[in-house]
Design a protein that fits this description.
The chain is an alpha+beta fold and about 450 residues long. It contains 18 helices and twelve strands. Helix content is about 50%, strand content about 15%.
Amino acid sequence: MSEHYPNLINFDEIIDSYSKGEISDNCLIDSVKSYREIQKQKDQLFDALRKGCGLQELLKIAYKFVGNPFTLVDSSYSILASYPTVSDERTLEIKNNRLSIKNVFSNDMKVNKITERIYHSIYPFTSKIEDFPYDWVFESIRINQAVVGYICCRGINKEFSEEDLAFIHDLSKTISVELQKDFSFSNPKGIKYDHFFKELFLKHFDNEENIKNQLRLLGVKPESNYYLLAFDFISSSERVLSPEYYCNQISSILQNSITGTYNGTIITLVPTHTLKPYSEENRERLVTFLQMNNMIATLSFVFTNLMESHTYFDQCQSMLTLFEPSDITDRILLYGDYCFRHISNIIDNPEVLQASIHPALKFIKKYDEENETEYLLTLQTYIQKNRSAPAAAEALHIHKSTFFYRIEKMKNLFGIDITNPDAMFAYEISLKLMRISHHFNH
């Protein structure tokens, strides 16, 4: 520790200096008192740990020694404990019935590289944060090298000393043991959630309304659209905690969702009334959580019928087997980027094939049938004509302005984006799959 805190009291060095006559009696007495005080506080930490006094008591002891308020935060930015109790409206808010760091503040931490330092540093460090006139100290909480949260101490009452930082490091290790000994991240609904996913994916529900009723009983509001996410560790040795911990963390990030396990895989079902599974802010929080725990997530296509959930679960599962760690550029893998590789393995399964079609094209097809429009034909012709608007308009026997009007309508109604090359590729593949699917059905 002395190499990280060069001004920290070293009792052996003090005794050696005194024996050489390099320090006075009074200096020796002061140094011994200071050393004993540090050891006393450490002993209090270990005694509280042994007695199982809990996280709050550990932070209370730390506050008494350091003199500044402490907050313990998990990797989803939810507050686990604090002393004194925190109620800062600038940085905190209630999310999913849990006190959490506000998105704007967690984003500031990311921009200022604080989150990155928490993830990579194994010792406490001080940092300045804009609009706050004092120093902040952060240190990660690790279990088997995995970051499961962090300590935050605000220098409101006094400046931090070398002794404070060394004590915070001991506090971090003590909290790590406490979390492993009596993990307070447990998910009391975990068994119910796991049973729900088992019934859902094994197709034990008679109809969709029964599934929706079950969701309501579990406190989740059904919506018009749904997504599935599956989670895994980049290395099998990275999982250091119980699945309940990770489920609870994910649930605190994704609102109105249900997270459990099925066949050893962590799964989240996200009902949504839009064509997006989460807000951009929640996506950032999820990515940070995945980075801290060295995990990845796979995201299915959007779907509307809960009775088809098992095929979209297969989409998520397929990506977990197809991805290569060296290929990861984002922590959330999208099925649209992997569907063709998946399709090559399941082309003889009509049900899965149908689920692999881009959902926007399904919405367009249904809309055309109900409203006697030709949006799907317009998009198909545009692709067939090498994405040339004039050529597509000519082939459709419509004016160019009519063509662009249809494109704009498709953008507004279904999220179609003809400027995105990856999306266009997915549309083109899906049109081919629709023809293949038509072949299976006839």
